[in-house]
């Protein structure tokens, strides 16, 4: 198959969607398919930019873009050179797979409709919950729905009426954001031939937004994640020495984007309780983003701030050493759609502590970790239980690896390929039925004229 992946974020930007697109591209190619990635150039001069990248290939198509002003890792793409638009048409893609409901994603939907190409949309980001922490994105959301949507996708009369309603101000900005997101996502996804939800949580959320006017099929299909390279003893010791970990330290923590929406403050609020019971406990944060400064300020107010470590950004290929340092992996986010790092942690044989009960298929309560309530007291209780029991940590770690191996990149990519094939088959069947119906109508009109 010739496959087009459309995303509003890609390398060199580092985030979950970039990992998803990149690994899917590589695995699809390894299984014999031709894959193109369509993404922002992060500059208005893509040709110059591409020439400076040492990882680029001719199957990555970049559009001119400029900073959004909202987040450092998100650009606005409004320029689609006719040359590239013609290039998309000439590719004769067998299927289009969209990962983001923004400008490049909308272009993918537009291309699917315009060139009569089967379309799959993947729900990668919980924009509904995300908007609670970032209400300042409202102007951008309104512009996207009111201007870019109509220009990019084929809207019906009822769609336009719904969009007009969304521009009526609400008393609460957060609620206004969420109303816009739930309705616009529903309209958008109804244009697709298949929609992928990465977790039971997202599946239920999307189902809850649907009404009789906008039905669409949803497939629960988590992203595939492989184990990271295992660090050598030397690498592990160098990491521990660099960040001051002693032999008897009990280390728990988080790996990923340090964003406000990740609910990471609950880890620091639980810290005093944990270190009171486990004096050798240390809290490790691996990652970076704008909320890091807030977390560091909170850490400074704890009783043992020297026992909370922030490493900053570490390249993914080097993260194995961070997971190997941890005794317990804690993921407090309530606003993720899958939690890529949970799979990495499970592959590394770590027991898990989560708050979101419907987020991940690699988490089984009481088998390889615990679900905690969303408060510092219960979170601390679950972490302490694991820190005080090496035997339990070992048993849970073995189970984590077993669960992680169910969702490898190869296995999940094969499921995606099967979904592609089903969508294409249904599409071709529908086209044959449509063509036959049109022929029958034309024949009927011709017969009536003969009479």
What can you tell me about this protein's structure?
With 451 residues, this protein is an alpha/beta fold. It has two domains: 2-224 and 410-436, Glycogen Phosphorylase B (Rossmann fold, 3-Layer(aba) Sandwich); 233-403, Rossmann fold, CATH 3.40.50.2000. The chain is built from 17 helices and 15 strands. The strands form three sheets. The protein has a seven-stranded parallel sheet, sandwiched between helices. Strands 12-11-10-13-14-15 form a six-stranded parallel sheet, sandwiched between helices. Helix 11 crosses helix 15 (376-387). The mean pLDDT is 87.
- What structural class should be given to the helix and strand makeup? alpha/beta
Largest sheet: 7 strands, parallel
Number of helical elements = 17
Say how many strands there are: 15
CATH superfamily of the largest domain: Glycogen Phosphorylase B
Q: Mean of the pLDDT scores? A: 87
CATH fold-level topology of the largest domain:
Rossmann fold
N- and C-termini, Cα separation: 48 Å
CATH architecture of the largest domain: 3-Layer(aba) Sandwich
Tell me the domain tally: 2
Q: Which geometry do the CA atoms define?
A: globular
Strand order of the largest sheet: 3-2-1-6-7-8-9
Helix content: 40-55%
Give the radius of gyration. 24 Å
Q: pLDDT below 50 for ≥5 consecutive residues: which ranges?
A: none
CATH class of the largest domain: Alpha Beta
Residue fraction in strands: 5-15%
């Amino acid at each position: 198959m010739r496959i087009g992946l459309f995303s509003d974020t890609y390398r060199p930007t580092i985030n979950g969607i970039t990992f998803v697109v990149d690994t899917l591209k590589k695995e699809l190619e390894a299984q014999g398919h031709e894959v193109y990635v369509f993404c922002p150039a992060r500059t208005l001069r893509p040709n110059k930019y591409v020439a400076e990248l040492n990882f680029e290939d001719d199957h990555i198509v970049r559009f001119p873009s400029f900073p959004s002003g909202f987040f450092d890792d998100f650009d606005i793409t409004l320029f689609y050179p006719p040359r590239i638009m013609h290039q998309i048409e000439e590719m004769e893609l067998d299927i289009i797979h969209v990962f983001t409901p923004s400008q490049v994603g909308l272009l993918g939907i537009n291309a699917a409709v315009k060139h009569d190409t089967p379309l799959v949309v993947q729900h990668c980001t919980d924009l509904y919950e995300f908007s609670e922490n970032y209400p300042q994105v409202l102007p951008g959301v309104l512009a996207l729905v009111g201007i870019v949507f109509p220009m990019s996708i084929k809207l019906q009369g009822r769609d336009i009426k719904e969009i007009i309603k969304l521009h009526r101000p609400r008393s609460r900005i957060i609620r206004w954001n969420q109303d816009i997101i739930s309705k616009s996502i529903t309209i958008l996804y109804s244009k697709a031939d298949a929609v992928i939800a990465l977790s039971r949580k997202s599946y239920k959320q999307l189902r809850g937004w649907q009404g009789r006017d906008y039905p669409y099929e949803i497939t629960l299909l988590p992203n595939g994640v492989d184990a990271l390279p295992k660090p050598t003893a030397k690498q592990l010791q160098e990491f521990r020495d660099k960040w001051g970990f002693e032999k008897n330290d009990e280390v728990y923590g988080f790996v990923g984007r340090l964003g406000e929406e990740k609910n990471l403050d609950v880890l620091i609020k639980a810290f005093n309780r944990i270190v009171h019971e486990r004096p050798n406990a240390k809290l490790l944060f691996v990652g970076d983003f704008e909320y890091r400064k807030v977390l560091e300020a909170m850490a400074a107010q704890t009783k043992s701030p020297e026992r909370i470590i922030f490493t900053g950004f570490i390249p993914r290929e080097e993260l194995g050493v961070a997971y190997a340092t941890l005794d317990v992996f804690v993921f407090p986010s309530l606003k993720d759609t899958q939690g890529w790092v949970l799979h990495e942690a499970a592959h590394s044989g770590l027991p898990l502590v989560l708050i979101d009960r419907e987020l991940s298929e690699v988490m089984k309560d009481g088998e390889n970790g615990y679900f905690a309530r969303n408060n510092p007291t219960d979170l601390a209780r679950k972490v302490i239980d694991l820190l005080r029991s090496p035997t339990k940590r070992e048993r849970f770690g073995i189970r984590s690896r077993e669960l992680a191996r169910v969702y490898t990149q190869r296995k999940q990519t094969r499921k995606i390929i099967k979904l592609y094939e089903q969508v294409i088959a249904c599409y071709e069947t529908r086209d044959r039925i449509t063509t036959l119906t049109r022929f029958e109508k034309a024949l009927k009109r011709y017969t009536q004229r003969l009479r």
